[in-house]
Amino acid sequence: MCTHLGGLTWELRGGIVAPDEDLEGVSVERRTGEHPHSSHWGAFLARVEDGRLRVRAHPDDPDPAPLLANIEAAADSTARVVSPAFRRGWLETGPGADARRGDDVFVEVSWDEALDITASELERVYREHGAESVFGGSYGWSSAGRVHHAQSQVHRFLNVLGGYVRSVNTYSAGAAEVILPRVLAPYSVLVTDTVAWRDIEAHGRLVVAFGGMPERTRYVHSGGPSRHRADAALRAARGAGVDFVFVSPLADDVPDYLDATPIAARPATDVALMLGIAHTLVVERLHDPDFLDRWCTGYPIFERYLLGLDDDQPKDPAWAASISGVPDEVIVGLARRMAAGPTLITVAHGLQRAEHGEQPVWMAITLAAMLGGIGLPGAGFAYALGIFANIGEAPLAIEIPSFPQGRNPIETFIPVARIADMLLRPGEAYDYDGQRLTYPDIRLVYWSGGNPFHHHQDLGRLRRAFGRPDTIIVHEPYWTATARHADIVLPATITLEREDVGSSRNDPGVIAMHRVLQPHGLARDDYAIFAELADRLGHGATFTEGRDAHDWLRHTYAGLAERLTNAGEATPTFEQFWESGELMLPVADEVGGWLRRFREDPEANPLDTPSGRIEIFSDTIASFDYEDCPGHATWLPADEWLGSERASSYPLQLIANQPAGRLHSQLDFGSASLEQKVEGREIARLNPADARCRGIVSGDVVRLFNDRGACFAAAAIDDAVLEGCVQLPTGAWFDPLDAGDPPTCLAGNPNVVTRDRGTSSMAQGCTGQLALVEVERAGDAPPPRGHAAPTMVAHAERPAFTS
Ligand code: PGD
Predict the structure, then answer these.
(1) pLDDT per residue over 558-568, tens digit each?
(2) What is the pLDDT of residues 478-493, one digit of tens each?
(3) 513-551 burial, b for 16+ CB within 10 Å, e for fewer?
(4) Are strands 444-448 and 435-438 parallel, antiparallel or unpaired?
(5) What band does 170 get if pLDDT is binned at 50, 70 and 90?
(6) Which atom of ligand 1 lies at the shortest distance from residue 482's CA?
(7) pLDDT confidence tier of residue 8, bands split at 50, 70 and 90
(8) Is the Cβ atom of 768 under 6 angstroms away from ligand 1?
(9) Which 8-state DSSP code applies to residue 17?
């Protein structure tokens, strides 16, 4: 495919807004025509009709996301932050640790005053404590749009001030991001350039999906898919005769049309199940010793473990069955089926978002290597295939646009999910990927574009951690729980209120995101806020380089245009792109070429691992001497699984997975999100047997709890959920009953009960997917408070510390 303008123009005739058209004075968001725009869950056209925002999917999108409906509530929700606001306690007593965060009232102030005080506080912290005391990791998905990418904006801003403590890796894939490069290839390569849907359709025979391929997450890709193609690709593969098997405690984790064979394993036991399969392959001589010998390293050490030569415990199907709950004859049958022809193994994100999350990823690679299919078309190993919209698509031949973040001179970082540890335990040492690191002493936290009171685990603990710093600054369009726990809240625009360029890896469509609405209330773009602050701090010119937001848009496009020209591609002008609404980038001819070449000649084309081969045993990892991540894939029982001691107190395994009605916590008040709730509460699904013995029927309000906290939810009895499990999606806004510790969430946020510990000393990734809980009928539970601003009070005295 080569560069060309996309198919939006005819749809938009008469609706285009000139990029520099002055929107000042246009009465409340009234526009005519439809404007191209984009979100992480898809490109769309937006218009204002009878004073209301209306959206419809990109006309060429074959499978638009139901989540698009949420956008219609985005602009004027009662949860919008309309003005800069300061927490009263902070204004009254000045910076410092304060347990009232999250339980305080706010004071609205003018922009000038807000910017003056914020700049003065930043100046104080940098002067008194240095850049190592500022945490700017600011993890979060924020919104689609490459220029106004909130994380890039805050990082660039803090870099011009002297740097900040950053975070590494993601909540999505924290364990995979660390283990994959050690044993196979970098995560970024595995999710963009490994296995193609078209190869699965043409050459595949069997796909075994550990964790399933749930429809709800396939609509999403960071930056926004222009067209959702995964559904058609799956249907085509199935139509071509490819069989699917999926392993999950949730029977509806794959679409019906795949006719997939379900295997209901207990949560957190996939490694044991995979070992049982591997054992069968060895004893029945169905594995591929040649592949293991020439393309891999360390298999004999792993085989000793598999056969139980050192611990007297063969990891045979009977052993695997006793752990996973999957009958041994099913395990043996699956092993034979996998060995009968080309098989692709894929592992969902969720499996590694749990204690020892490195192991299912590593074990799946080990199993794929034993089958000998790695590097063959439509076979081998794929990470998170069918989980994200664009995985399985061809990579782009051109790098997508991005906003330059500058250089951070500070080397201190944390693995992203260690935020509460960092704030609670400054100066303490901990392990990460072979390094001994020390938590810095953070005085100021700056967050823009994320919602830690959604994404982090054990929210009671996070609340204590957020009580520690001197000052917390948050940019947000909405009064999320994170904004409510801040001292300084600056209202940010949403994408519809600004111009941007939407682009996503492995998707050729680059969307001209036109401005559709006037900013709500006093909201400003993150860029404009940072530019003003930088100016007050004497770094305005360095931050802006003399550009306003529109200049950056053109500048960013110019970079893309230059890459196209250098690649010999047709290069539309910015005006042509903007007018058209879409630009189609060229895609690479080949997918997974690096793996194919490795397969053809591993000596000439080694992998980027220490041995140049697939590391079934890793000397590097073994040298770290981590009990919780030994030198080869290993079954390591989690502290919180159905076979653990803790299950006698909290006997149900909570599966806190991704929601069907929204992306994470975004637009929780939108119609698609509300459809998945009952009277504002999230729905918790239970198996009929577990419901019956607790006297719970569908529609009851239930209380999920453990020693970390509790939340209310609406019960739905569903035999798609494996007995012993309860499923409650993430993303309901944390709505604490009171300031009590442990907290109770009225709206059903499962992170009140999840555990805040790293996957292991290796990756220290997020473990939010699983936790042990008990569930009971709640009787009369107070209703959730909905989505609104906190209490605002009149202006307080200016604090003494400001200059
Ligand atoms: P979002 O709800 O997407 O969650 O965590 P993440 O923090 O990314 O938050 C983005 C925030 O950015 C929203 O509050 C939104 O309003 C704000 N925002 C949007 N646009 C803008 C903007 O232009 N400017 C500014 N300043 N703000 C903006 C997601 C994380 O949660 C992820 S990625 C995963 S995969 C994890 N999943 C789980 C899980 O499966 N189970 C549990 N228990 N916990 C999880 N947490 C993780």
Answers:
(1) 999 999 999 99
(2) 999 999 999 999 999 9
(3) bbbbbbbbeebbbbbbbbbbbbebbebbeebbeeeebee
(4) unpaired
(5) very high
(6) 14
(7) low
(8) yes
(9) P
287: Cβ below 6 Å to ligand 1? Answer: no
Residue 125 reports pLDDT greater than 90: yes
Q: Which of 90, 139, 383, 578 is catalytic?
A: 139
Phi, psi for 490 (deg, rounded to 5) = -110, 125
Task: Residue 262: name the closest of 367, 334, 352 by CA.
Answer: 334
Element (H, E) at 541: helix 540-544
Q: Return the closest-CA partner of residue 356 out of 769, 643, 796, 793.
A: 769
Q: Can the peptide bond before residue 790 be classed as cis, meaning omega within 30 degrees of 0?
A: no
| C-beta of 269 in contact with ligand 1 (< 6 A) | no
Distance CA 668, CA 688 (A): 28
**Ligand 1 centre and the CA of 677: distance in Å?**
19
What is the distance in A from the centroid of ligand 1 to the CA of 248? 25
Instruction: Please determine, for residue 328, whether its predicted confidence score (pLDDT) is greater than 70.
Output: yes
3-class secondary structure, 659: coil
User: CA 335: distance to chain centroid?
Assistant: 32
Burial label, 366 (beta-carbon count in 10 A; 0-12, 13-18, 19+): buried
Phi, psi (deg, nearest 5) at residue 404: -70, 130
Helices (H) and strands (E) in the chain, counts: 28, 33
656 in contact with ligand 1, CB cutoff 6 A: yes
pLDDT of 449 higher than 60: yes
Number of neighbouring beta carbons within 10 Å of residue 411: 9
User: At 93, which helix (H) or strand (E)?
Assistant: helix 88-93
pLDDT of residue 2: 57
**Is the distance from CB of 273 to CB of 338 less than 8 angstroms?**
no
Residue 87 has pLDDT above 70, yes or no: yes
Q: Percent of the chain, pLDDT > 90?
A: 93
Q: Residue 573's Cα: distance from chain center in Å?
A: 34
Q: Which atom of ligand 1 is nearest to the CA of 731?
A: 2
State the catalytic residue, choosing from 141, 187, 319, 430.
141
- Triad 787, 788, 794: Cα angle to 5°: 165
Q: 744 — phi, psi (to 5°)?
A: -120, 125
Q: Closest ligand 1 atom, CA of 349? A: 35
Mean pLDDT for 16-33 is 38
| Mean pLDDT for the chain overall | 94
CA-to-CA distance for 308 and 96, rounded, in angstroms?
Answer: 56
CA distance 781 to 770: 25
| pLDDT tens-digit readout, 381-439 | 999 999 999 999 999 999 999 999 999 999 999 999 999 999 999 999 999 999 999 99
The stretch 662-669 carries a mean pLDDT of 98
Q: Is 141 a catalytic residue?
A: yes
**Which among 428, 418, 505, 492 is positioned nearest to 135, based on CA atoms?**
418
Contact 373, 379 (CB under 8 A): yes
CB hemisphere CA count around 257 (13 angstroms) = 11
Reading the block at residue 107, the tokens are 């004071």
DSSP string of 183-252? HTS-HHHHTTSS--HHHHHHH--EEEEET---HHHHT--TT--SS--HHHHHHHHHHTT-EEEEE-SBTT
What is the pLDDT, as a whole number, of residue 603? 98
